[in-house]
Design brief:
By secondary structure, this protein is an all-alpha fold. The protein has two helices and no strands. The longest helix has 55 residues.
């Protein structure tokens, strides 16, 4: 009998379909907010990355030209 009583879940711990739906909607909202925040951060970072890559390509070209000039 003790084993059966131990398996009984208190009413406060039982979730209804409504509770699950509310939780599901709250999680969807949180995920959407996180996605929008991430998209905004990526959009803000893109110009900086493009500037760095362009600068590095120019420096790399200069180094290659200098090496070729020195090897002649």
């Amino acid at each position: 009998m003790d084993e059966l009583e131990h398996r009984i879940v208190p009413m406060e711990q039982i979730s209804t379909k409504g509770d699950l739906e509310v939780t599901k909607l709250a999680l969807k909202k949180d995920i959407e907010q996180a996605r929008l925040t991430l998209q905004k951060e990526i959009a803000e970072a893109k110009p900086g990355i493009i500037k760095w890559v362009t600068g590095l390509l120019i420096v790399q070209t200069g180094v290659i030209v200098t090496i070729i000039t020195l090897l002649r």
